[in-house]
Design brief:
Length: 246
C-alpha cells in the first residue's frame, strides 16, 4: 500500500514547544462514532483554517473497494495482505479531496452497501489497520491537516495539536442518517437505521484492535442539540483557545 499526499505536499516542519508546527501548520484529530457530525465538522474546520481535510474512513472504504473488486473475501488475510502490497491510495488535491485507488476515482462506489460492509469487516483486520495507520501518518507529515476517523487521536496522531471526540445520541444519529438517505431518494425505517447504528457502535467500541474511544486529552463534545454552524463555532473556539491561532 502506498499513499501520497498529492502535489501540495510540503516538507515537514519542526514542532515547537506549544505543539504548533513552526510555520503554524496545525494537526487536528477528530474522532467519534458514525453520524456524530465528524465529516461535516472536519470539512468546515479545514476550510476555515485553510488546512487539508483527510477522511480516513474513505481509506478503509478504498481498501474495501479494491478487495471487493478483486473478489477477495475480507477475512482471507493472506490474499488481503497481498492485495494491500499492490494497491496505491492517494487523494486528489482539492477542497473536497477524492480518493484514488490505483489511479481510479472510486468515490462513487465507496458508500455502496457491499463496500461499507467489507470496510467494516476489514477495519478489524490488524494488517489493514497497520497499513492504513502508516499511510495516514505519511499524509499528516508536516502538519496542516484535519484528519477524521475512529482512532486518530488515540493511535494515528497521538501528538495532534488539538483532538476532538464528537458524539451524539443514537436517536439523533439515526435521524440524521435517515434524513440523509431521504435526500438521496432512498428510504429505510428509522428503527432499522437505529438498530444498525447500535450494532456498529458495539462493534467499533469493543473490537480488539484500536477500539473507538476518546483520547484522554480530547475535547469531548455532544452535538445532539447543535446545528452545523454552532458545532463549527465551538470547534474553532477550542482550536483558538488551545493553540492561539486566529
Ligand atoms: O467513517 P466511515 O463510515 O466512512 O468508515 C468506514 C469504516 O472504516 C467503518 O467501518 C469504520 C472504519 N474506520 C476505522 O475503523 N478507523 C478509522 N480511522 C476510520 C474508519
Amino acid at each position: 500500500m502506498r499513499a501520497r499526499r498529492g502535489s501540495a505536499s510540503r516538507s515537514a516542519a519542526a514542532k515547537n514547544k506549544k505543539g504548533l508546527t513552526a510555520d503554524g501548520r496545525l494537526t487536528i484529530a477528530i474522532d467519534g462514532p458514525a453520524g456524530a457530525g465528524k465529516s461535516t465538522s472536519a470539512r468546515d474546520l479545514a476550510n476555515a483554517l485553510a488546512l487539508r481535510y483527510i477522511d480516513t474512513g474513505a481509506m478503509y472504504r478504498g481498501v474495501a473497494w479494491a478487495v471487493v473488486r478483486a473478489g477477495v473475501a475480507p477475512d482471507d488475510r493472506r490474499r488481503v495482505r497481498s492485495l494491500l502490497a499492490r494497491t496505491a491510495l492517494s487523494f486528489t488535491d482539492e477542497a473536497e479531496p477524492r480518493l484514488l485507488v490505483d489511479g481510479h476515482d472510486a468515490s462513487a462506489a465507496l458508500r455502496s452497501p457491499d463496500v461499507s460492509q467489507a470496510a467494516s469487516r476489514l477495519a478489524t483486520v490488524p494488517e489493514v489497520r497497520t497499513f492504513l495507520v502508516r499511510a495516514q501518518r505519511r499524509l499528516a507529515r508536516g502538519g496542516g491537516v484535519v484528519m477524521e476517523g475512529r482512532d486518530i487521536g488515540t493511535v494515528v496522531l497521538p501528538r495532534a495539536d488539538v483532538k476532538f471526540f464528537l458524539d451524539a445520541s443514537v436517536e439523533e444519529r439515526a435521524r440524521r442518517r435517515w434524513k440523509q438517505l431521504g435526500a438521496t431518494g432512498r428510504s429505510e425505517p428509522r428503527s432499522a437505521i437505529e438498530a444498525a447504528i447500535r450494532e456498529r457502535d458495539h462493534r467499533d467500541r469493543t473490537r480488539a484492535v484500536s477500539p473507538l474511544r476518546a483520547a484522554d486529552d480530547a475535547v469531548v463534545l455532544d452535538t445532539t442539540r447543535d446545528s452545523r454552524a454552532r458545532v463549527k463555532r465551538m470547534l474553532l473556539d477550542w482550536v483558538r483557545r488551545k493553540t492561539g491561532v486566529r
